[in-house]
Structures are given as C-alpha cells and as structure tokens.
Design brief:
globular; ANTAR domain-containing protein; five-stranded antiparallel sheet; Arc Repressor Mutant, subunit A; alpha+beta; 10 helices; RNA binding; 18% strand; 2 domains
Length: 224
C-alpha cells in the first residue's frame, strides 16, 4: 500500500537531468493539526532515506530523525505551530536511515480549508548539505535560457533568499527553481514578483522574515 503522498513529484521527461538532480534536494510536506496527519513528497521521503510510498510519516517518526541536539527545538517549533497556527522556519539537522546527517531548512506556512480556516501547515524542506558543481550549472544555463536572459532580477531574488535564510547561491537558485516548477510560473516572472513584493514590505527583521516565509509560498498568486 502506498503510504507517502506524492506532493510536487516531477516526471523525468519534464526536466533536464541537472535541474532534476537539484530539485531532488527540495520537497514538500503537509501537516493537518486535528489528526496530526502528515504527507511527504517523494523528495522528502528520500531525504529521510525511504523509498517513496514505503513509510507512513508521523510526528514520532519525524522527530526520531532529528539530530539529538536539535530534537527538542524542533518539537517546540512544531508544538507552537499547532498551538498558534503561525508560519515557521527552522534550520536543523536530520539523520537518515543510513545514518547520514543532512542540514536542512524547513519553511512552513498556513494550510487552509475551503472556508479559509487554518487547519494545518504546508511548506517545504531544502537539503543544504550538497552543492551544485560547475557542470550542473552549465546544464541549467543551457536548458533554461530565460534564466540567462533575466539574470539580473534572478540574482536579486537569489540574494534575498541568501540573506533571509543564510543559504548559498546554488541553494537559493534551487529554491527559486522549485517554486517555479511547483507553481507553473516562469522563473524570471517569479523572481520579479518576489523582488517587487519584498521591496514593498516594511517592518522590523522578525516581521520581515515571517512575512517573507509566507510571501515565498504565495507570490506566484500575485497579479503581474
């Protein structure tokens, strides 16, 4: 029986090898507060060391994979999200079934039902452990000519992600690619909307970070 939900899975025929490899480091999740039910994308299952469809994610399983030094903090972050319904962002370590340590960024936003009520959280994992090599960067440039043509605005968007989350340029570009594919939005259009929306925001650093987490997951819905 298939246990893991297939959130944001991509077909190998739909993307070049270099892009597909990069997108394997980013995956989606959903969590419903009422019954503590989780859904993991194939990428998140693989990040934890499981073949897609072979494990049913639970809160206990999720916490068991956290690095012992990070487990209590993650548990408190999750408890706060359930209690308040507020978005969250966490950088921590997980240990997969083979014992490999992965440094991850996890961003969660509100999950709404058909009435608009907050019923859970939805978001994504970014595996910060690996980096793109030069060959893979060249593949991306060849298969995504619009990226090269719109370099300036994409570089601005990458810079924002790097500053907000403390990640490197390759990881920031991977996040933009993933949101582009997940929302069926051209990369340069997504980057332009993100930059414009960030410029329009005000408030202090904490407010800006919280708003940016939400913005990253919803900016594709904004009008051009």
């Amino acid at each position: 029986m298939t246990k893991t939900a297939h959130l944001g899975s991509e077909s190998p025929a739909e993307t070049a090898d270099g892009e597909r490899q990069e997108l394997e480091t980013i995956g989606s999740f959903r969590f419903w507060f009422a019954d503590h039910r989780w859904e993991w994308s194939d990428q998140v299952a693989r990040l934890h060391g499981y073949a897609p469809g072979t494990v049913e994610p639970t809160t206990e399983l999720l916490l068991a994979h956290k690095h012992p030094d990070d487990r209590a903090t993650v548990a408190e972050t999750l408890a706060t999200a359930v209690r308040t319904g507020e978005p969250f962002c966490s950088r921590h370590r997980i240990i997969d079934v083979a014992g490999r340590v992965h440094h991850v960024l996890v961003v969660g936003d509100r999950l709404h039902d058909s009435t608009g009520a907050t019923v859970g959280t939805t978001g994504y994992y970014v595996d910060l452990t690996g980096r793109l090599d030069q060959n893979r960067q060249e593949v991306l440039k060849e298969t995504l000519p619009e990226v090269v043509a719109a370099r300036e605005v994409i570089e601005q968007a990458k810079g924002i992600l790097m500053f907000i989350y403390g990640i490197n340029a390759e990881q920031a570009f991977g996040v933009l690619q993933w949101r582009s594919q997940e929302t069926n939005t051209k990369l340069r259009d997504l980057a332009a909307k993100l930059v414009a929306a960030v410029v329009a925001q005000g408030g202090g650093p904490v407010q800006q970070r919280t708003r940016f987490d939400h913005l990253l997951l919803t900016v594709h819905e904004r009008p051009d």
